[in-house]
Amino acid sequence: MARLDKERFKEKSKEHNNVQDVVGADYKFFELEGKKYFQIDSYGKSSRKNPGKVSQSIQFDEEFARELVRLLREEFQV
Fold first, then answer.
1. Buried b (16+ CB within 10 A) or exposed e, 63-78
2. pTM (2 decimals)?
3. In terms of DSSP bridges, do strands 56-61 and 35-42 run parallel, antiparallel, or are they unpaired?
4. DSSP label of 22
5. Which pLDDT tens digit goes with each residue over 16-72?
6. Which residues neighbour 39 within 8 Å (Cβ) at sequence distance 6 or greater?
7. Where in 1-78 does DSSP place strands (E)?
8. d(CA 66, CA 9)
9. How would you class 60 by CB atoms within 10 Å of its CB: exposed for 0-12, middle for 13-18, buried for 19 or more?
10. How far apart are CA 55 and CA 43, in angstroms?
């Protein structure tokens, strides 16, 4: 599991980009000690050894979510 932080989130350019396979994912919002979080759990490919088991979890707090929305709006011009 990982929690992303605005201060450690930097743009990186890669020469070799590729599109990943589509996998299942769930999301949830929760509050802990008065702070709100958003979490995404992905499940990986159905052919993996333990299908249905969470493969990765990523958490954002409100500050990071605002920065991510700003970046997405800027890039996709929405």
1. ebbebeeeeeeeeeee
2. 0.84
3. antiparallel
4. P
5. 889 999 999 999 999 999 999 999 999 988 787 887 889 999 999 999 999 999 999
6. 27, 28, 29, 30, 57, 58, 59, 60
7. 2-4, 25-32, 35-42, 56-61
8. 13
9. buried
10. 5
The predicted structure's pLDDT at residue 32: 97
At position 59, the amino acid (one-letter code) is Q
| 59-68 own/partner pairs: CB under 8 Å, 24+ apart | 59/1, 59/2, 59/3, 59/4, 60/3, 60/4, 61/3, 61/5, 61/35, 61/36, 61/37, 62/35, 62/36, 63/6, 64/4, 64/5, 64/6, 64/9, 65/38, 67/6, 67/9
